[in-house]
Amino acid sequence: MPLKKIRVEELVVDKRIIPPIESTEDVRKTQSFIGRQSAIKALRFGLDMDKEGYNIFVVGLPGTGRKTFVKHFVSEYAQKKPVPSDVAYVMDFDDPQKANTLFLPAGKGVEFKKDMEKLVENLTEKISKVFEGEDYKARRKEIDEEFESEQERVVNDLVGKAQALGFLIKFTQTGVNYYPLKDGRPLKEEEFAALSEEEKKRFEENEKKVQLLIEAATENVRKLENLYKERVRDLNRYALLFATEEFFSVIEEKYPFSDVREFIHKIREDIIEKVSSTKKLAELEYYFRRAYSINLVVDNSDLNCAPVVFEDTPTYHNLFGKIEYIEREGMLYTDFNMIRPGALHKANGGYLIVDARELLIHPFVWDRLKKILFSKQLEVENVDTAYGYSTIATLKTEPIPLRVKVILVGTPEIYELLHEYDPDFEKLFKVKVEMDWELDTTVENISDLVAFITDYTREREILPVKRSAIEKIVWYSTRLSGDRTKLSMKLGSIIDLLEEANFFAVKRNSKYVEYEDVSRALKEREERLKLVVEKYDEMFRREDLMVDVTGKVVGQVNGLTVINFGDFEFGLPVRITAKTYLGSSGILDIQREADLSGQIHSKAVMILTGYLGSKYARKVPFSIGVSISFEQVYGYVEGDSASLAEVLAIISAISKIPIKQNIAVTGSINQHGHVQPVGGVTEKVEGFYRICKIKGLTGNQGVIIPKANVRNLVLSDEVLDAVRNGLFHIWTVDDVDEAVELMTDMKAGIMNKNYEYPRGTVNYYVVQALKQSHDIAEGKGKEKKAKKKREKM
Questions:
Q1: What is the pLDDT of residues 653-682, one digit of tens each?
Q2: Please, which domain of life does this record's source organism belong to (predicted)?
């Protein structure tokens, strides 16, 4: 059967699909949202849908520009939406343990705050002048004198009436005392005792009358005091209203809003009460500054549209606000001035963007957010108070009506987790926006990528990018996607490469970012990360890790694996060996027996058993034992990409036909022997090339890969040059027999209707070896039966 060797033209992106430009200076149209058409449609629907529960969850892989895309698009969308009101907390004069809210048009909040600060500054001075004025003093003196005169009249009347009844009245700090009189002087106890019964009886009757007179006088004095206080209050009210009218009238005229007018009315009443009860102006000034100030928690004066807030650290307090405390003489104190806003306050009336993972790792945040979205009200409560962990008296804040669109950005795993285990999630986040991680390498999409690069270079003032550099960036994008027919949407990585290339271009005083700058950026990045690769290469060089890249060996194949260190991955060859023996039939996977095999690899070995059985054991049982091993591999083996190499090693071990060591193999097989695509083929090919280079390139070395993986090859320039110059080769196969023929230089052989293979083919030798093993096993069985029969006789 014909074997397919890949030509270098099949391994590169057609440069004709890149726009015909010399550099990004020639690009007129820029593109901010490359390849996001479906995501834009879904996101716009979620933003337009003004119904309960239609918050948005943007699903995408890290590094695909999810957050940047959402922030940019939502910011553009918000330009059409109005600016929400400013929000302030003020004192509740009916209950100082509460805080009320004021809503003012955007920009008015900061003005109102300044005007109130000026009012407070003028109040003390104005009040001081009012009470020091001659008119006020004269009127107050008149009220005082009238009160004193009436009080004196009541007292004198009481004293006179008591004296007529034979009692002396004395006023003390503890109250009113009275004593019986005789001959104009108070009686002593012994003198009172010496009185006749008739006199005592008379004094006792009069004493009751005196008590009634004292009660009546006390009540009259109390009424006089209340009247006096009322007259003083009316005087103060009139004086204060007259003195402060100019201040308050200006504010009410400037801010004709119901919230403000009600607040000003409360302040006027509070001023009269506090001035009447407080004599010290210093105390009044301190009180005015605290009580009449404005805690402006949301200032939208700088906005010209609806707010878009991205909270990158969504802790409880950062998201929902908090109430702070200060210590005074061992006591914790707070008031409305110490309320601090959260991101939800600032985003109210607009849009809040939050990283879903960050949201979930902070305690209580997800639960609290759900409650707020359900209630549509935002109330500031510290976490210990909200969840009943605090015994400290705190401030009660008036709830703020919440009108915000919450946009979570997360991975598919987080979305599935919330959707599966939280029934509230589906009720609150009804719009799913999926971000694709790759695009087809069409002319249109590459033009969009170039437009995106142009947009970024102009925005960040980066040097223009030459066409040759663009070609290398497109190559890098396809390498990130792992598919030459796809462009990666990991725009963050492309931006990083662009920035690094620009760094090297500036360093050499170039006016453009050119091919050499992009190549150097990639090389420098690899140099920073390749220490582990160098250590492995050194072990191959010293043959501490044993791999042959020349010659032929029975039962031994060079498989390929990928090592991943998170920020860097590379390919390595690994020796796979197979050994056969008489005994229990089947395949013994040494990795699995040593608990170093994953479930997928174990499944692949079982598939090998099915394939080998159906291919070779149609007329004779598979009566041979086979063990396979990944030599010098001491870690966990997972995946099925080595199954093609394993089956080649087994076929070689059974047939005793040697296998080429100059060719490495990767590919998965099914039970029909079809070769299936695998991951990491680029790294695997480059890994084997690197080892061949270390041990010496011979011109006949290469790699077998599945045919379906050709589009996944995005090779480095060095490997491409080696393929172009015939120093290294890449073959593709569709089934196991194609690989067998390439690795043995023999025909594999096709099974006929009698389940037999042509003589001299590899499959023929496999079947013959199985027959021989079966005959040996059967012969030993007959000998044992004959021996037992002789023993019985």
A1: 999 999 999 999 999 999 999 999 999 999
A2: Bacteria
Give residue 691's identity as a one-letter amino acid code.
I
Please check whether residues 631 and 649 belong to one and the same domain.
yes
Q: For 50, which DSSP code?
A: -
Q: State whether 752 and 626 are in the same domain.
A: yes
Between CA 34 and CA 75 the distance in angstroms is: 17
Mean of pLDDT values over 62-72: 86
Cβ(762)–Cβ(740) below 8 Å: yes
Confidence (pTM) = 0.78
Mean pLDDT, range 98-111, rounded to an integer: 93
345 and 198, same structural domain? no
Which token pair is 112? 């109102």
Q: Is the Cα torsion angle 231, 236, 242, 245 positive or negative in sign?
A: negative
Torsion sign (Cα): 382, 387, 390, 392:
positive
Q: Examine residue 249 and state whether it is found in any structural domain, yes or no.
A: yes
Residue 761: helix, strand or coil by DSSP?
coil
Sign, CA torsion 304/310/313/315: positive
Q: Are residues 720 and 587 in the same domain?
A: yes
Looking at the structure of the chain, the number of domains it has is 4
**What are the tens digits of pLDDT across the range 296-333?**
999 999 999 999 999 999 999 999 999 998 888 778 88
**Domain endpoint, select from 289, 317, 339:** 289
Distance CA 561, CA 545 (A): 14
Same domain (yes/no): 543, 589: yes
**Structure-block tokens of residue 93:** 């004069």
Q: How confident is residue 17, by pLDDT bands cut at 50, 70 and 90?
A: confident
Q: Which long-range contacts (CB under 8 A, 24 or more apart) does 507-510 make?
A: 510/463
pLDDT higher for 131 or 645? 645
Q: What's 360's domain CATH number?
A: 3.40.50.300
Collect all residues with Cβ–Cβ distance below 8 Å to 120 and sequence separation of at least 6.
288, 289, 292, 293
Give the DSSP per-residue string, 262-297. Answer: HHHHHHHHHHHHHHHH---HHHHHHHHHHHS--EEE
90 within some domain: no
CA 685, 691, 697, 702 torsion-angle sign? negative
**Between residues 789 and 572, the one the model is more confident about:** 572
Which amino acids are annotated catalytic? 641, 684
Q: For 183-306, where are the E strands, in sequence order? A: 185-186, 295-298
Is residue 54 in some structural domain? no
Tell me which of 434, 451, 476 is where a domain ends.
434
Are 279 and 312 in the same domain? no
Structural domain harbouring 244:
122-289
In a shared domain, residues 211 and 276: yes
**To the nearest whole number, what is the mean pLDDT of the chain?**
87
764, part of any domain? yes
One domain, residues 550 and 699: yes
